């Protein structure tokens, strides 16, 4: 089982925990943030981590994040590779506010999971692929 070293930027920061109910781990806002509609911000998450060699972290908003605070993760998904591992390499959530909002210190605003890096691959150019076509983008229907 891989071990992840974690540094907390505050002694009173909520400690991260793995839960039995899901594969993703919640991250917390490290300081109260007041955002205006149309504003971009980097929300500090209060942690830095040393991920094992061959692993990266993916971050995404929690399912309630937009409903509660009206913020969108500005880069859709975050990828934190294991070279971003210094003590001062604090994880942050880049957000765009769609309305005026206040996110309090300690609010659970996003989540992450650890995944293995993509294995080495080789691209091979081809004139044709298989003869199986699905019918184009969005071809599986809506119901």
Care to describe what's here?
- This protein has 143 residues and is mainly beta.
- 3% of the residues lie in helices and 36% in strands.
- The protein has one helix at residues 65-69; strands spanning 5-8, 25-28, 33-35, 40-44, 47-50, 55-61, 71-73, 78-81, 92-97, 101-103, 108-116.
- The strands form 4 sheets. Strands 2-11-6-8 form a 4-stranded antiparallel β-sheet, with no helix packed on it. Strands 4-9-7 form a 3-stranded antiparallel β-sheet. Strands 1-5 form a two-stranded antiparallel sheet.
Listing every helix as H and every strand as E from the N terminus to the C terminus, the arrangement reads EEEEEEHEEEEE
Question: What is the beta-strand fraction?
Answer: 35-45%
Distance between the termini: 40 Å
Mean pLDDT: 92
List keywords for this structure.
143 residues, mainly beta, 1 helix
Summarize it.
This protein has 143 residues and is mainly beta.
SSE blueprint and pairings:
Elements: E1 5-8, E2 25-28, E3 33-35, E4 40-44, E5 47-50, E6 55-61, H1 65-69, E7 71-73, E8 78-81, E9 92-97, E10 101-103, E11 108-116
Antiparallel strand pairs: 1-5, 2-11, 3-10, 4-9, 6-8, 6-11, 7-9
């Amino acid at each position: 089982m891989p071990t992840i070293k974690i540094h907390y930027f505050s002694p009173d920061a909520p400690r991260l925990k793995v839960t039995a109910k899901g594969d993703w781990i919640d991250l917390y806002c490290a300081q109260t943030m007041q955002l205006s509609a149309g504003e971009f911000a980097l929300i500090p998450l209060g942690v830095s981590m040393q991920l094992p060699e061959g692993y990266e972290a993916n971050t995404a908003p929690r399912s309630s994040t937009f409903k509660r605070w009206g913020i969108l993760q500005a880069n859709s998904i975050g990828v934190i590779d294991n070279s971003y591992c210094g003590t001062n390499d604090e994880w942050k959530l880049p957000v765009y506010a769609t309305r005026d909002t206040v996110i309090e210190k300690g609010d659970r605003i996003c989540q992450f999971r650890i995944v293995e890096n993509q294995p080495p691959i080789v691209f091979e150019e081809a004139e044709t692929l298989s003869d199986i076509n699905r019918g184009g983008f969005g071809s599986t229907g809506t119901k």
